[in-house]
Amino acid sequence: MSDPVKLLSVEGLSVRAGELELVREVSFAIAPGERVGLIGESGSGKSLTALSLMGLLPEGVSASGTAVLGGHRLLGVPEKRLKGLRGRTVSMVFQEPMTALNPLMRVGAQVSEVMTLHGRDRAAARARTLDLLDRVRLPHPAQIARAYPHQLSGGQRQRVMLAIALANEPDLLICDEPTTALDVTVQKQMLELIAEVAPALLFITHDLAVVASMCERVLVMYGGRVVESGPMREVFTRPRHRYTEGLLDASRLTPRGTRLPTIKGSVPSAGAFPEGCVFRNRCPHAGPRCETEPALTGEAHGYACWHPGD
Ligand SMILES: Nc1ncnc2c1ncn2[C@@H]1O[C@H](COP(=O)(O)OP(=O)(O)OP(=O)(O)O)[C@@H](O)[C@H]1O
C-alpha cells in the first residue's frame, strides 16, 4: 500500500556504473501537488536520480533501492511495465527539446502519438492535442500542430515538450534544467507555466533563484548524496551543510538583511511591499494584500519572496 500523503517515495536509491557508485543511498518523498527542487553542482547526480525514476538510465548504468509512485514500483521492474508508466504516471521534460523531438514528424503527430501509445483513439488524441498546445500557451495551436520542430523557436519547442509530458495526465512531472537553453524572458514564462500546470514537480536546476521562486521544498545533492533537504525557506535561510552555504554564497540569492539591488526599469506598484523587495512589481501575489517578506530574492526570476501562509 502506498502512503496517502506521499505521492513518490524514494528509499536508498543508488546508481552504479560497474564498480563506480554515482548516486548513493538517496531517499526523499514528494507529496501530491508538491513542488520539490533538486539542486547541486554539475556531476552531483541529479540527472541520474531523475533518469532512474523514469527507467531511462544509460547503457551500463543501473539503479538499486526502492521508488514507489502512486503505488507503482519504478525500480527493478520490467521495461514493458515501465513503458506503461512512463508518460502516464511520471513524465519528464529535458533541457534540450531538439534531441527529444523527432525532426521528421509534425509536432501535432508527436503529441498525439504519446496518447495513442497509451490506448487513446486517434480522433480523441488529435482533439486533445490542440487543447494541450493551447494549454501550454502556444498561439494558433492548429498551425503549430502542422509545423515541424525546426520551424518553431526554442521556447515553443520546449512548450511542445511540456504538452507531450502532460498528454497522459501524469501524477508527477520531472523537469531537468528545462529552461537553461532559453533566453531570460522566455525562461521566466516557461517557469511560470510549469509551476501552473505541474501536477507535482521534481525540478532539477543549478539555479537557486529558480528553486526559490518555484518550489516548496528543496533537496541538495553533493557527490552523489542528498546532503540536505527541507522546506525551501529553511534550507536557504539556515543551511546546515557547508556545501549548501557555499552554493548560496555563490548564487544570485541575497540573504535577508543585506542591501538589495534594485532593478532598472521596474515598475513597483504596490505600496504594501516592504522596503527592499526588488521584485514587488513581478510578485504573483502583488497587490494591496501582499505581505511579502524578502528573506531572499532572486534577481532574474522576480518573485522569490515569501508570503505568510503560502
Ligand atoms: N553513462 C555514464 N557512465 C558513467 N558515469 C556516468 C554516466 N552518466 C553520468 N555519469 C557520471 O555520474 C555523475 C553524475 O552525473 P549526473 O548527470 O547525474 O550529474 P548532474 O548533477 O545531473 O550534473 P549536471 O548538472 O551537469 O547535469 C557524474 O560524475 C557523471 O560523470
UniProtKB/TrEMBL annotation:
Localization, UniProt: Cell membrane
ABC transporter domain residues: 8-248
Coiled coil: none
One GO term describing the cellular component: plasma membrane
Membrane topology reported for the UniProt record: Peripheral membrane protein
MF (Gene Ontology): ATP binding; ATP hydrolysis activity
Superkingdom field: Bacteria
GO biological process: peptide transport
Pfam families: ABC_tran, oligo_HPY
PANTHER family reported for this sequence: DIPEPTIDE TRANSPORT ATP-BINDING PROTEIN DPPD, OLIGOPEPTIDE TRANSPORT ATP-BINDING PROTEIN APPD
Family: Belongs to the ABC transporter superfamily.
Listed name of the protein: Oligopeptide/dipeptide ABC transporter ATP-binding protein
